[in-house]
Amino acid sequence: MGSKASTQGEKTGEAEKTELEPSPIPRLDNAIVVSQISKDNDIRFGNGRFTYLNPIGKGGFGIVTMVVDTDTSYPYAMKMERCAASYKNEVEAYEKLMGVQGVAKFYSTFREQGFTFLQLELVGISLLQFVRAKGRKLRRTEAFKLAPQMIDILEQIHERGLILDFGFTSTYLDSDVEHLEATTRAPRGTVLYMSANQHLSIYNSRRDDLESLIYTLMDICKVSLPWRNLQAPTNRCGHHAYFDMKQGGMDGSKICDVPEFKKALIMCRALEYDEKPNYEKFKRVFKLNSARAATVSVKPDLPNRVYRCNLIREEEEILLKFDVNKEVTETSEIAELIEMNNSPDADD
Hints:
Largest sheet: 7 strands, antiparallel
Number of domains: 2
CATH topology of the largest domain: Transferase(Phosphotransferase), domain 1
CATH class of the largest domain: Mainly Alpha
Distance between the termini: 28 Å
Order of helices and strands: EEEEEHEEHHEEHHHHHHH
CATH architecture of the largest domain: Orthogonal Bundle
Number of helices: 10
Helix content: 25-40%
Shape: globular
Radius of gyration: 21 Å
Number of strands: 9
């Protein structure tokens, strides 16, 4: 495990870099020849070291771009967002998750022109992009084949003392490595997939991660989420409406009629706040028999393909701040966009 990241005062106009103990350069099969990059592309990060190729993700956290290291010709994912103190927690979480299969490897972080950058492993397409590439929702057998893999990843994250929280992670252990006591806070996260208890302002724990995963699996295989058409909650009454609908009765019968999802939800509801889930038991709920599993493929046709996402004009202008041939003055529109994206109420 590398040493924790530290930062120094930001210097105007030049990148201030914070690197963990050196990690081996990734041996990727899809290394890019720098001479093949368009000469029209003049967007650079890290004092010119990283050349921007295209955007591959965005959200409340900021923008993720595909870049190439001009020193090594290797591609990476580069996450950029307006500088905020929270990025230090994110770096520490990546340190704890080093080696967890399914979590991008972290290499370094630096600050430049008022933005924080995280250099990450380029891992390919996301689950959402995978579903979109198929041009349809997944079949239940496909979702059930993915479920044990996703539960495995959750278990590894939990073993490192972390839970998923508002798009990334937070610890559920105190300084004595004991489970934190149940506490309350304002609900936050992606409303569609939040656990029922989160709508009651109960701080999430391992059981809530599993419940959110089940809702995600239901959604990607076209099992209707009854609360999808509810108005976004803005007060306690709104959140209680979501809570009641996500409870779906003691047996979950009002949520869906898929036995596997109903059983998994009952198992989540039976867990105490600080109880460790029986991950193997959850995986068995979705396990296909060997003959059936052999006929189901959930691998992308192009596993190394990275999909491009579309940016709005304000987001494109943010990238142009780093064009070596242009000087772009930040507008109030850009500032408002960034403030909105970093607000506590922003979705994942």
